[in-house]
Amino acid sequence: MKLLLTGALTFFVLGLNAQITLIDEDFTSGIPASWTVVDVDGNIPNNSVSQFTSAWIGFTTVFDTCAASTSYYENPASSEDYLITPQLNLLGGGNMLSWDAKSFDATFPDSYIVLISTTDTNPNSFTDTIVMIENESPYWTSYVYDLFDFGYANQGVYVAFKNVSTDAYILGIDNVKITTNDPLSVSKVKQSVLVKVYPNPTTSFLNIVTDNFLKAQLFNISGQKVIETNKHVINVIDLPKGIYILRVTAIEGIIEKKIVIN
Ligand SMILES: [Ca+2]
Ligand SMILES: [Ca+2]
């Protein structure tokens, strides 16, 4: 028994599916250099919006700075102006994309498309549409989409905001945020419950040793619970090989531990 216990590892308290912020951009310092701006239409802005020397610029109003694009051209025409995030590495789930948007003239509201590329920042690579917003509100409006619902997980993506307005005015985008969930991330918080689990890796059984044990739950890499028991010994012989999270609940608290089944 003593020999077995020497194999016990350090435990950390962690949250299953710990949320990671991949990007949270408020454009306070303008468009970051890590972002990509592409002016596909090449149209010349009207003199009254001549500060738009690029397809998207940092645009400061009384209260805040956002990213903005104009479709008010010298000769009325349509915009094809891309504002593209850096590559963002999505994890297994909870891939939430959110942003705020507004049209700066209620009479000439702008329209835009939110697109995804899985390869690069070339406009032609943005082949998947998350949403098209027609005639955006003149008030800041917030949006949230789960990219997992569109089939995106465990991969790198670029997100583009494409101004597609025809002879409108100014479109503002702000607070672009993308978060992701890592079911295997370990946040190093203090050890609050002393638990030993062995063997790990295992092929057949897990033995759990702790005081004031209440229950054990085993989650697969997708965050799905595959076992729940109040026994100290868990039979995992029928589970697929791979990485799991074992959550042990004791009176003193909960600890989670990465487990490998071979
Ligand atoms: Ca801002
Ligand atoms: Ca343009």
How does this structure look, described?
The chain has 262 residues and is mostly beta strands. It folds into two domains: 2-16 and 186-261, Sandwich (Immunoglobulin-like), CATH 2.60.40; 18-182, Jelly Rolls (Sandwich). The chain has one helix at 2-5; strands spanning 18-25, 36-39, 57-60, 65-70, 81-84, 88-89, 93-103, 112-117, 128-133, 141-146, 156-163, 170-182, 195-198, 205-210, 213-219, 225-229, 233-235, 242-250, 253-261. The strands form four sheets. Strands 1, 3, 4, 7, 10 and 12 form a six-stranded antiparallel beta sheet that branches. A hairpin with a 2-residue loop joins strand 18 (242-250) and strand 19 (253-261). The longest helix has 4 residues, at 2-5. It is elongated and about 75 Å long. Mean pLDDT is 87; it is low at 1-16 and 186-192. One calcium ion binds at residues 26-28, 64-66, 174.
